[in-house]
Each structure stands twice: as C-alpha cells, then as structure tokens.
TrEMBL record:
Keyword Signal attached: no
Amino-acid positions noted as binding NADP(+) in the UniProt annotation, renumbered to this chain: 131-135, 218, 242
Keywords linked to the UniProt accession: Amino-acid biosynthesis, Aromatic amino acid biosynthesis, Membrane, NADP, Oxidoreductase, Transmembrane, Transmembrane helix
Lineage: Bacteria, Pseudomonadati, Pseudomonadota, Gammaproteobacteria, Enterobacterales
Catalyzed reaction equations: shikimate + NADP(+) = 3-dehydroshikimate + NADPH + H(+)
Stated family: Belongs to the shikimate dehydrogenase family.
Gene name tied to this protein: aroE
Active site residues of this protein: 70
Assigned EC number: 1.1.1.25
GO cellular component terms, A-Z: cytosol
Domain Shikimate dehydrogenase substrate binding N-terminal: 11-93
Residues that coordinate or bind shikimate: 19-21, 66, 91, 107, 220, 249
Record protein name field: Shikimate dehydrogenase (NADP(+))
Pfam families in the record: Shikimate_DH, Shikimate_dh_N
C-alpha cells in the first residue's frame, strides 16, 4: 500500500508463524494512515539478542515480543514503564536511540480492555486464574489495580507461590485453596495455562461456578480450544476466547509507538469470524 517504509516494526518469538499480529498491525496502518511496516521474525534463544539488536541498529523502531522471550526482552531494555517493571516481563519495545530501549507490557491493559468490552468484569469481582506462568505475570497488576480479588490455581504450587510473593503488594491475591471449594463462586475464571486439560477440569469443582460466572480463555489458536469446549460442555452462559486481548494489546503497542490508539472492535469481529470461534457473549 505504501511506497516506502521509513521505519520497521516486528514481532519476535518462537514460534511466530501462527501469529495474527502482522494482520492486526496492517489493519491499524490502513485505519490510521500511518506508515507502519510490521513483520514477524522467528528466532532461537541463542540468536534472540543479536538479531533484536541488529534490527534496531538498522531501521527497526519498535518490536513486539512473544513467547518465550518476554523475560529476555525485559533484560534487554534500558528503561521500563511501571507496568513492565512490575510484571518483570516485556512484550513491547520502543527504540529511543541506538543505545536506549523502552520496554512496556501491554498484555494486562489488553486483557482488561477486552473484559470491559465484553462486560465480563467489575470492581470487587473474585477471579480464579488457571496458571502461574509468564502470561499471568503480564496481567495481574491490571486486574489487582482494577480492584478484583485474584486466586491462583496452578499445577506447580511453587510457581503459584512465587507469583503471590511478586504481586501481593498490589492487591488481594491468594493461592486457590481446596478449603474454598464449597463456599466460593467465582465471578470470572481465566485460563492462562498453555495446556488446559482434564487434570485441571478435575481440580475445578462445579460448585465454584454459578450461571453468572464469566469464562475467558487467553488462548485463541484453533488447535487449543479445550477450555472453550469445556465451557460449552458445562453449559456456561458467558465465555470468550482471547482474540480481543490480542487485538487490544497490539493497539496499546501501536499507541506507544505512534501516539494513536486504533479502533479495535471491527478487527476483533473480523478475526473471530475468520477463525470461526465466536464467543457465546458475541453470538447472543
Ligand atoms: P507462558 O509464559 O505463556 O505463561 P509458561 O510459562 O510455559 O507459558 O506457563 C504456562 C502455564 O501453563 C503454567 O502455569 C504451567 O504450569 P506449571 O507452572 O505447572 O508449569 C501451565 N501448564 C503448561 N502445561 C501444562 C499441563 N500439561 N498441565 C497443567 N498445566 C500446564
């Protein structure tokens, strides 16, 4: 569409071939009329720093970082936004000059924006988060500062404990304890595991769920729909995949780079139709 590209933007990760980020960013470019060349670059851990550095020494102006390099990106940056500092994880980098790089984390605002769009979140909600990996570190500060109480349920208890220590100063966060089983209905359940499976289903008693419980899957890949299938199986009334979070986190990266927050709703609808996994909230 554009005759020349002054600066380049790219997604770094492994794997990145499945990523929808290049499509999303090209739609942002069309919508805003901003020159914005955005590609995806698959890298190995060994090559991550040299390739990223080289990118910025050429025409690279901004980068998104996805799994498994968000911690490496955090170490790469010379300056950090408050939310990246708290998450200790970076998904967006902006080049300041040849030696200075600002790291941000837009995952939390991405998730929160989508939960608000869906009307899945209110202050004081009790949220059960499944998982305690890097993805959870990116979202906790946003949920806690919004005023929600968070419970963590994870396969490896040590990882849950580390997350609690890192985030307890920002709000009400606890390890999910089986003693809560009979007394607590969650308002919202978020799947942040990379592999939700039968073992986790067994750990979630149906007494934790009410007809009003919202379910959100941070995954959006077509081959990873076990959580959404489970929502359908148990008759959940409100559930959604994570396409909206993906689009909103991209929008906030675009905002950091270009000082404009693009419109997102039509892109979320477009991607959901393309993937043919509409959330139930959007179907009714
Ligand atoms: P990410 O950085 O994307 O969050 P991750 O660090 O690999 O990815 O973490 C993924 C989460 O999914 C973790 O909470 C992990 O649980 P552990 O802390 O026990 O490793 C969870 N997870 C991954 N595979 C799992 C499986 N087969 N069963 C249950 N949980 C799993």
């Amino acid at each position: 569409m554009f005759k020349y590209q002054k600066y380049n933007y790219a997604l770094f990760g492994n794997p990145v071939h499945y990523s929808k980020s290049p499509v999303i960013h090209s739609l942002f470019a069309q919508q805003t009329g901003i020159l914005h060349s955005y590609t995806s670059i698959n890298v190995s851990l060994k090559d991550f720093y040299p390739i990223l550095y080289n990118f910025f020494q050429k025409n690279g102006k901004g980068a998104n970082i996805t799994v498994p390099f968000k911690q490496e990106a955090y170490a790469f940056c010379t300056e950090l936004t408050q939310r990246a500092k708290i998450a200790k994880s970076v998904n967006t980098i902006q080049k300041i000059d040849d030696k200075h790089f600002l790291g941000d984390n837009t995952d939390g605002i991405g998730l929160l924006s989508d939960l608000i769009r869906l009307d899945f979140i209110k202050k004081k909600y009790s949220i059960l988060i499944l998982g305690a990996g890097g993805a959870v570190k990116g979202i906790l500060f946003s949920l806690l500062s919004f005023g929600c109480s968070v419970f963590i349920l994870n396969r490896t208890i040590e990882n849950s404990k580390k997350i609690i220590i890192q985030f307890q100063k920002y709000g009400n966060i606890k390890i999910f304890d089986r003693s809560l089983l009979d007394i607590k209905h969650f308002d919202l359940i978020i799947n942040a595991t990379s592999n939700f499976n039968q073992e986790q289903v067994n750990a979630i008693s149906l007494s934790l769920i009410s007809p009003k419980t919202f379910f959100y899957d941070m995954n959006y890949q077509k081959n990873n729909v076990f959580f959404i299938d489970w929502c359908i199986k148990i008759g959940a009334n409100f559930f959604s995949n994570g396409i909206g979070m993906l689009v909103f986190q991209a929008a906030h990266s675009f905002l950091l780079w270009h000082k404009i927050l693009p419109e997102t709703d039509y892109i979320i609808q477009f991607l959901n139709k393309e993937k043919n996994i509409l959330s139930k909230q959007e179907r009714v």
